[in-house]
Amino acid sequence: MTPDSSQDTRYRQALAAHGAELARCCHGYERDPVLRQELQQELHLALWQSLAAFRGDCSLRTWVYRVAHNVGARHVQHHAGKAQMLALEEIEHLPDERLDPGHTERRLDLQRVLALVHRLAPLDRELMLLYLEELDAASIADITGLSTRNVATKIHRIKALLASQLSATRSPR
């Protein structure tokens, strides 16, 4: 097998196994549909290019998330001046933003969570998106380069703040 066909094969395997996760990842990093499409293209190109160096030292899933994390982080940093980012301490003081009442309660909760996640600082957003993809703290640490304990602590704090904000939006005024 030539290097190009091996790379193409790994890329197809990665998409077959993790394509839906990558699409959700792009949606988590970018709200704007046009910029999301741009991010998705950047991510797929970066993934394909990176697979030439993939040697199996980690799982394919970890590799895919590492690439997605790096591309998403660059994207967020590039567009950071255009969007309002919030520190964890600031998120609990957000005003109540009512969403379209025509959706189901679960859909509303998901929209509320994503709206809050989109307003987090880049690193906190990345951690939460990986957590929402059901990765454990050790896997997230491997992807982000943070310690497992730091990841677990930050995720715990983010979850507590998101839960607090969500319960505030549900309570009657």
UniProtKB/TrEMBL annotation:
Asked if the record carries the keyword Chaperone, the reply is no
Lineage of the species this protein comes from: Bacteria, Pseudomonadati, Pseudomonadota, Betaproteobacteria, Burkholderiales
**What keyword terms does UniProt attach to this protein?**
Sigma factor, Transcription, Transcription regulation
Tell me if Transcription is a UniProt keyword of this record: yes
InterPro entries assigned to the protein according to its UniProt record, in alphabetical order:
RNA_pol_sigma-70-like, RNA_pol_sigma-70_dom, RNA_pol_sigma70_r2, RNA_pol_sigma70_r4_t2, RNA_pol_sigma_r2, RNA_pol_sigma_r3/r4-like, WH-like_DNA-bd_sf
**Which family is it part of?**
Belongs to the sigma-70 factor family. ECF subfamily.
Q: Which Gene3D superfamilies match?
A: 1.10.1740.10, Winged helix-like DNA-binding domain superfamily/Winged helix DNA-binding domain
Concerning SUPFAM superfamilies, the annotation shows: Sigma2 domain of RNA polymerase sigma factors, Sigma3 and sigma4 domains of RNA polymerase sigma factors
Q: Which organism is it from?
A: Pelomonas dachongensis
* Pfam name, any one: Sigma70_r4_2
Q: What is this protein called?
A: RNA polymerase sigma factor
Taxonomic superkingdom: Bacteria
Residues forming the RNA polymerase sigma factor 70 region 4 type domain are: 111-161
PANTHER family per record: RNA POLYMERASE ECF-TYPE SIGMA FACTO, RNA POLYMERASE ECF-TYPE SIGMA FACTOR
Every RNA polymerase sigma-70 region domain range? 17-77
